[in-house]
Amino acid sequence: MQTAYVLVSPCKDEAKYIEKTLHSVAQQTVKPAQWVIVDDGSRDDSMAIVAQYQTRMPFIKVVHRETGARAVGPGVIQAFNAGLAAVDAAHDFICKFDVDLELPERYFEIMLERMAADPRLGTFSGKPWYHNRAGRLVPELCGDESSVGMIKFYRRSAFDAIGGFVVENGWDMLDGHMARWHGWRAGSRDEADTRFLHLRAMGSSQKSLRHGRARHGEAQWRIGTHPLFFAAAAVNRLKEPPLVLGTLWFTTGYLRAALTGTPRLGDEDFIRFLRRYQLRALRTGKREAAEWAFQERAHDLARGGIPEAARGADLTA
């Protein structure tokens, strides 16, 4: 079984959380070949904490990048790409790994086992849970159709096939669909042995939770989400606090992007493929629809029925 994996972690002012993440990686049953932590202009004690762990974790490599304010979406991928360029350890797998997580000890061992069991599995993850305002541990709303954004574990050949992550808002929704477009499976599962703790609520790391929800709605527009699927997603948001306001912010982001003509990330062929998956997901659920989309696309690629120009989405369109 191939076991060489690398972690790449953008980091900006994460002193509140990073020590728990460092401890989690130190306790993994299978350690990374390298962990590149990108100091994205931190002004707190983040890097001092990392330095305390480097002697016992010699696989940590720090890359310094001077930037301004925290910038999720495009900014985090720019930082990730700086770290990716600094990787100098041989590896078969790569993980975009946030430094506000606590993992079970066998997390990466299990990821490697899943990859070994399915050679067409391109990207996979467990599911994040977090403590709500009442202190109760609850799951974040994350679909089964892709690995989750804070810990995207990729087979390197699949990551290269999709051309890496786009430097745009929506990168962490687009990539799973792009994996299937190129003939790879993508997914995540909520299972006890790969369930992990997200120390900060998803979508709240830049300006506010309100900004994060609106940004997520805009990302749905950018990847080409079907209006019916978006409506269902908005209703589903009523399950996650802030119930009504969160859904309103989410919907505002989508409508504002639509009304202002915000560019899509994929071409017409890719958006058609995405929407076929989404409409099926409304009937059967995301997990079944994702497998159906994978099988359909794999069949088309195998028979050569897709024009060469349409085999990869034009991500700059």
Could you characterize what this model shows?
The chain is α/β, with parallel strands linked by helices and 317 residues long. It has three domains: 5-198, Alpha-Beta Complex (Spore Coat Polysaccharide Biosynthesis Protein SpsA, Chain A), CATH 3.90.550.10; 209-259; 268-310. Helix content is 43%, strand content 15%. It is built from eleven helices and eleven strands. The protein has helices spanning 18-26, 46-54, 74-86, 107-117, 156-161, 171-181, 209-223, 227-236, 243-259, 268-284, 286-303, and strands spanning 5-11, 34-39, 60-64, 93-97, 101-102, 121-125, 128-131, 137-139, 151-155, 185-188, 196-198. The strands form two sheets. It has a seven-stranded mixed beta sheet with strand order 3-2-1-4-9-6-10, with helices on both faces. The radius of gyration is 19 Å and the shape is globular. 43% of the residues are buried. Mean pLDDT is 90; it is low at 305-317.
